[in-house]
UniProtKB/TrEMBL annotation:
Signal peptide: none annotated. Residues 1-161 form a coiled coil. It holds the Pfam family Tropomyosin. Keywords: Coiled coil. It comes from Westerdykella ornata. This is Tropomyosin-like protein.
Length: 161
């Protein structure tokens, strides 16, 4: 009898612990989702910046072409073309850096999605485990009630004898 009570208490404690762990995992999933949203916003921002830089590169390339055509007219035009060429090179490097950053962020986002899926599976497994423990507790509780009734019936029969 005492063992059953202790076992029931242990099951209750374990069920509470499972519920706490499930809550922790839910919180972790929420944090990962928030991080995922932040990463998506960063990607959007960097994508926009990259588009602006690419547009600026195209404009500068058009200017370089124009200046190259006029370069035959004077040395000043040649100097401007070199300056614009350096600017294009700098902008191309910035565009490459932006592309690298976007790839890194996409990889981090993918890893975050993988982790999120992993934690969701863990939460599901813990919830299933908790449900199994609750079912087992109910089964043991019913058996306990049956045995209690049998004991009372036996006690009643003994008093009638």
């Amino acid at each position: 009898m005492e063992q059953i009570k202790q076992r029931m208490q242990a099951l209750r404690v374990e069920a509470d612990e499972s519920a706490n762990r499930a809550e922790e995992f839910k919180n972790k999933v929420k944090a990962l989702e928030a991080e995922n949203t932040q990463k998506e916003q960063e990607i959007t921002s960097l994508t926009h910046k990259n588009q602006v830089l690419e547009a600026e590169v195209e404009k500068l390339e058009a200017l370089v072409k124009t200046f190259k055509e006029e370069a035959g007219a004077g040395a000043a035009a040649g100097t401007q073309a070199e300056t614009l060429q350096r600017k294009i090179q700098v902008l191309e490097e910035e565009a490459e850096e932006s592309d690298r950053t976007i790839r890194e962020l996409n990889e981090k986002l993918r890893q975050t999605d993988v982790k999120s899926g992993h934690y969701e599976r863990k939460v599901q497994a813990l919830e299933n485990e908790r449900d199994q423990w609750e079912a087992k507790f109910e089964e043991l509780n019913q058996k306990y009630q049956q045995k209690q009734k049998e004991l009372e019936d036996l006690a009643q029969e003994l008093t009638n004898i």
